[in-house]
Each structure stands twice: as C-alpha cells, then as structure tokens.
Write a structure and sequence with these properties.
alpha+beta, Cytochrome p450, 16 helices, 14 strands, 46% helix, 13% strand, globular, disordered N terminus, oxidoreductase activity, acting on paired donors, with incorporation or reduction of molecular oxygen, metal-binding, Cyt_P450_sf
C-alpha cells in the first residue's frame, strides 16, 4: 500500500514499493499509522522516495542488527553511502565501523562505561537528581524538557566526562546535528550541517587530552593510548562518540518517560507504590517512544531476508520504533506498561552496535524517576507539548507541566 492507501506496486522479486517519506514533517508529527502500513505491507519493503529498502517488523530489524557482516555500518548508518560520497565529518570509530576495527575501539568504551564504573558514579548521579527535584518542587510549574530532561543530564554528564564548564551549551545542538545528518539531504539535514561549525569546533577542541579533567571518562579514554590499546589520533574521536552517545539518548529518554508518566497517571501511581519499577518505567518509555527512530545499514553482498532478495551495496532502513511496537513481538504494543517485560526492545539497538551509552542513560533515567516518584504526587501537562523535529530522533522541544508535592 502507498501512503495514500492505494495498492503498492511490486518491485524487485515481489517486494512491495511504498510511496512513503519517513523523513517528512507530517511523518514525524505522527509516525504510527505509517509504521503500521510499513509492517503490514511485508517483511521487506522498498521506499521509492529515497531508493532504499526498509524493514519495520521486529524479526527483520533484529536480524539486520545482529548480522553486521552482511549489513555493515562502515558505509554509514545514515542514507549517505561513505563508499560513494565523503562523510560530513570524520566517521565515528564506533557507530560507523565494522569488526575487527570496531571490536577494539568498542572494548575501550565498554571499559570506561562499565557496570563497575556506573556503581562508582551512582551516588553522585542520585544526589544530582534529588537536587534537581528540589528545585522543581520550588517552581511547581516548569518545562519538563529544558528544566528536567535536558538540565539534569547536562548538570552531571559533562562533569563525569571531565569537560570544562565553558561552552557546554554546544552539546545538545551538536548531538542534534549528528542525528539530523543521518537523514537524507532534506531541509533539516542541510540546516543542521550549515549551522554545525561552532558546535563541531567546540566538540573537537574539548575532546583533546589537555582539555579533559583528570579522573573523568574522557581522561580514562586517553589513558588507553598509554596502554597501547588505541592510538593518540583515535582517542579524541572516541571521546566525541561519548559526547553524542551519552547525552541525546538520555535527554530524549528522560523526556519520553516523564511524558508517558504524565499521560498515564495509573502508571505513575504504580511507580509511586513501588520505586523498584523506576528502571523498567524508563526502559518501557524507550520502547514505547523510541527516542532513536531509525538507522541504516548497507549490504556487503547479495542477501535473502525473509524471502526478499537484496543486492550488494543497498541501503536498508531499519524502523526501530516500528519494531518496538510490532504486535508480532509485543502484547498490547501501543500501551505504556511499566511492569512489561521490556527485554529485547531495540530502542538502544541490538548486537555489537548496541548503544554504548546505554548504561549511563539507564542509570540517569532510573535515579531521576526514583527521585520524582518519591517526592511528587502528581504530574499534570499544563500546555501544548511541542515536538522537536529531527531526521533520526523523536523527542519533545517543550512539555509544560505542573507537579504536586507528595
């Protein structure tokens, strides 16, 4: 079926062709009807608008994510094919790399952001969450995005990384550029890249060894150069990966969780009754809202996927958000349920490229929701929420709320 509901034309080897633009403003405003259309059209579809294959069902998205040898990342995880065009910035050593190169750099970041390290920073992150909730309780009415979802990670993560205090206002715009750049050459991407120079300059500068405070995540990455695990040229690029991976996922994840808990007061009461559900409430918000909506892979050979033949060098667009609400995989996928068994969702990806910042995001999400649920009786949405449009991310630009103290 096309977006207008007319039957799809059949393409190569009977693959349905859809007239759908997953990077259009009206799609971003309400992606769910199109997600359903994509899932129901077939296990593999072809999107004529951008000449790419698409997978929107859970089984196929999971299969593509878990076969990096066939569906590679080194040719770019956006629409742009690095084999055919020059990337807008030096490629990420993590996101835009394949094994064995990826294995070595990934191991470094996994050590720097290990569960042991998370235990060490947990108290600091918890104290910062409590402090933020204290401030919000004094205000009562505030914007849950700028005053909470952005303000909390910005108050804690750049310090943990070892960044200088000046210039941190570049961090969120930088991440937004990176994720817009994965999209097609539309207005969003062009505007983002045109405006990116000061953000890029700031980030490049801050990732250098001499600019990072000792003891932070950034300094720990540079220390691996001395151990011979990475080169001096690779270290700043790995710090850069942390800057984009550690902030936007968390900001959009916390924003999504507050938005869900405000819209579904029964779930909020359930969380207040059992604070151990905080981590899962965050996880379910990541499944339900999918802050990272899509990613691309490129085929390294001709491959058959669920009966569809895809040639070598083709871009495959994975609809992570559609997979996270696929009724073939989830019971009542369109309901937000903080007691759901969320394991297996692809909101952080899956396989070797699973979000390297996920432990940071989960820790921040859990401690923030715990702090809120402990002290706040009610969260009410008191104004029109505004979306922030981005080619890859789904999140809000503003969410006016009023909270009632417990």
């Amino acid at each position: 079926m096309s977006a207008s509901g007319s039957p799809a034309t059949s393409g190569p080897s009977g693959i349905p062709h859809l007239d759908v633009d997953p990077f259009a403003m009206n799609f971003f405003a309400d992606p769910y009807p199109t997600h359903e259309l994509l899932r129901e059209a077939g296990p593999v579809v072809y999107l004529d608008k951008w000449n790419v294959y698409g997978v929107a069902r859970y089984a196929e998205v999971h299969a593509v994510l878990n076969d990096p040898a066939t569906f590679c990342s080194s040719r770019g995880v956006g629409l742009s094919d690095f084999k055919k065009e020059t990337p807008w910035r030096p490629p990420s050593l993590i996101l835009e790399a394949d094994p064995p190169a990826h294995t070595r750099t990934r191991a470094v970041l996994s050590k720097v952001l290990s569960p042991t390290v998370m235990k060490q920073v947990r108290d600091r992150f918890t104290a910062a969450a409590d402090e933020r909730v204290d401030m919000l309780l004094e205000q009562r009415s505030f914007d849950a995005i700028s005053d909470l979802a952005e303000a909390y990670p910005l108050s804690i993560f750049p310090d943990a990384l070892g960044l200088k205090p000046e210039g941190r206002e570049h961090l969120i715009p930088y991440a937004s550029v990176v994720f817009n750049a994965f999209g097609p050459p539309n207005q969003l991407r062009q505007d983002a890249i045109e405006r990116s120079a000061p953000h890029q300059a700031y980030v490049t500068e801050q990732c250098q060894r001499e600019n990072l405070a000792p003891g932070g995540f950034g300094a720990c990455i540079h220390a691996r150069v001395d151990e011979g695990e990475i080169t001096a040229a690779e270290a700043p690029l790995l710090v850069r990966s942390l800057l984009s991976a550690g902030l936007d996922t968390t900001v959009n994840g916390i924003g999504a969780a507050v938005y869900c808990l405000a819209r579904f007061p029964d779930q909020w009461q359930r969380l207040r009754g059992d604070l151990t559900l905080a981590r899962n409430a965050f996880e379910e918000a990541v499944r339900f809202e999918s802050p990272v909506q899509t990613f691309f892979r490129t085929t390294t050979r001709e491959v058959e996927l669920s009966g569809a033949t895809i040639g070598e060098g083709e871009k495959v667009l994975m609809f992570l958000a559609a997979a996270n609400r696929d009724p073939r995989r989830w019971d009542k996928p369109d309901s937000y349920d903080i007691t759901r068994r969320t394991s297996g969702h692809v909101g952080f990806g899956s396989g070797i490229h699973m979000c390297v910042g996920q432990l940071v995001a989960r820790l921040e999400g859990e401690v923030m929701l715990t702090a809120l649920a402990r002290r706040v009786a009610r969260i009410e949405i008191t104004g029109e929420p505004n979306r922030r449009f981005n080619n890859t991310l789904r999140g809000l630009d503003s969410l006016p709320v009023t909270i009632t103290p417990a």
